[in-house]
Task: inverse folding
């Protein structure tokens, strides 16, 4: 059958097969046609054939028993006026109607070319429930969040985003991203590093990429990291993270260039720790007896030091139990606890090195925020650093710099390096933390202005049970910290690089693959 042979009656019959309801009204507002699906939507209505000739208002009143009470909270007449408003000239907005059985029907009204009207009724219960869950999730988000559909029109967001846009959420719905951005620019709430038109063009260009990140500065002094991400259905998710107290983009770039200059000679260092250890063992096979003797002597000393403290102070507490005051007991107990902690940490380090050497250490790699981990690691040492008047600066740690790493292992690596820096930096010193991207890698730098290490000692202190000559007392550790950090870095497919000039501080740089 060709299109020319299909008559009006056949076309009307085909409308009954649709899964949406269709109602047609003449110029007098009387129902002329309703397809079979109307009685499925509004199950309390008389059969559709009996509705022909009734006005839209008559049909609405017949619907009332099946309408949800929440829909009628402002009164029946207000509800009828709202529904009738869809037939007003120029009224194109769809209307959601909640039914008493829990369903939600979306009604769209359009005028035809002869003065009549066509209404389309569609069940959107599932879509509205999904949207409600999404809106509740983003309402609870600490970041500002907005979602745009495949036409780049605003769908939903949270109050934080409404504050940034300067308009209530209801006023943003349906507006395109470009319109919203231009309105914000014209409001004067933003500060630009270039002409406004150039900034808008850059923002639109970044927004349309699959994934992008940008920075935004407000006139009030607040700064945000803006991340745009494409969704599977062609829409866009936009997240604003407050980075007011963190680095600005130009400062981060300057710090990255400075750190890169210091570490460029280490870029080719990609050999794994296990391979290096195997070569060292092969080369030392002829001197196995001497190596064993040295290892036993070193282990004996490192184990005896904390054990002597534990036994000595416990003996004192036993002998002088009747004469010791609470303060002395607390002091001795603290020293015993410190000795036990040192032993425990040393044994854990030895076990980790053993598992790595045997190829049995499994990393749980996933995308992690490297800059964020540096900020969190800094917080662990702020109190201890303040006792020595040491400043730990993390301004060059941008949020959103993603690395592919085991979050727990990378955190312990950063803690070990910051712990070294705090331990060896003198009173009133400074420690600088920075994170930056370098091709397919992320570099995390911990730099201090302490006494440093002689150039001849740099390779030696990366070996097990070796100490630097930076301080006289190494009772806290067995000389395994840097060895373990180096091993973990290489297990990630990265490196640990150390640079130092005696008397001018030390810089340690962990390199791991970018996510």
Result:
């Amino acid at each position: 059958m060709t299109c020319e042979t299909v008559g009006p009656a056949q076309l009307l019959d085909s409308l009954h097969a649709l899964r949406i309801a269709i109602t047609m009204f003449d110029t007098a507002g009387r129902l002329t046609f309703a397809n079979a699906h109307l009685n499925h939507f509004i199950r309390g209505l008389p059969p559709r054939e009996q509705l022909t000739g009734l006005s839209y208002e008559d049909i609405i009143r017949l619907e009332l028993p099946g309408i949800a009470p929440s829909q009628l909270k402002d009164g029946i007449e207000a509800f009828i006026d709202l529904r009738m408003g869809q037939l007003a000239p120029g009224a194109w907005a769809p209307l959601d109607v909640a039914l008493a059985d829990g369903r939600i029907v979306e009604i769209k009204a359009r005028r035809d070319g002869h003065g009549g009207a066509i209404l389309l009724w569609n069940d959107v219960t599932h879509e509205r429930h999904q949207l409600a869950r999404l809106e509740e999730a983003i309402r609870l988000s600490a970041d500002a969040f907005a979602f745009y559909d495949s036409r780049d029109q605003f769908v939903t967001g949270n109050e934080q985003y409404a504050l940034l846009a300067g308009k209530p959420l209801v006023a943003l719905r349906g507006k395109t991203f470009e319109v919203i951005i231009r309105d914000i620019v014209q409001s004067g709430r933003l500060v630009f590093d270039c002409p406004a038109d150039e900034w808008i063009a850059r923002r639109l260009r970044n927004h349309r990429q699959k994934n992008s990140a940008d920075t935004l500065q407000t006139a009030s002094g607040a700064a945000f990291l803006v991340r745009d991400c494409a969704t599977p259905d062609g829409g866009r998710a936009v997240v604003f993270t407050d980075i007011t107290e963190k680095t600005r983009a130009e400062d981060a770039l300057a710090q990255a260039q400075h750190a890169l200059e210091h570490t460029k000679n280490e870029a080719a260092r990609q050999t794994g720790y296990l391979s290096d250890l195997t070569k060292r063992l092969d080369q030392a096979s002829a001197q196995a007896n001497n190596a064993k003797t040295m290892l036993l002597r070193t282990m004996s000393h490192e184990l005896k030091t904390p054990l002597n403290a534990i036994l000595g102070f416990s003996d004192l507490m036993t002998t002088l139990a009747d004469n010791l005051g609470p303060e002395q007991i607390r002091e001795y107990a603290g020293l015993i606890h410190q000795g036990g902690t040192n032993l425990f940490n040393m044994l854990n380090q030895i076990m980790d090195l053993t598992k790595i050497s045997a190829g049995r250490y499994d990393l749980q790699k996933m995308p992690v925020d490297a800059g964020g981990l540096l900020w969190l690691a800094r917080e662990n040492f702020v109190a201890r650093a303040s006792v020595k008047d040491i400043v730990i600066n993390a301004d060059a740690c941008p949020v959103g710099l993603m690395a592919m790493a085991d979050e727990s292992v990378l955190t312990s690596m950063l803690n070990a390096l910051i712990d070294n820096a705090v331990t060896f930096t003198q009173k009133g010193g400074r420690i600088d933390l920075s994170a930056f991207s370098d091709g397919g890698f992320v570099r995390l730098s911990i730099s201090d202005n302490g006494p440093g290490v002689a150039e001849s000692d740099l390779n030696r202190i990366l070996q097990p049970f070796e100490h630097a000559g930076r301080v006289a007392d190494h009772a806290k550790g067995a000389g395994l910290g840097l060895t373990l950090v180096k091993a973990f870095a290489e297990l990630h497919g990265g490196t640990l690089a150390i640079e130092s000039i005696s008397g001018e501080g030390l810089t340690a740089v962990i390199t791991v693959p970018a996510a």
About this structure: Confidence is low (pLDDT under 50) at residues 286-296, 470-475.
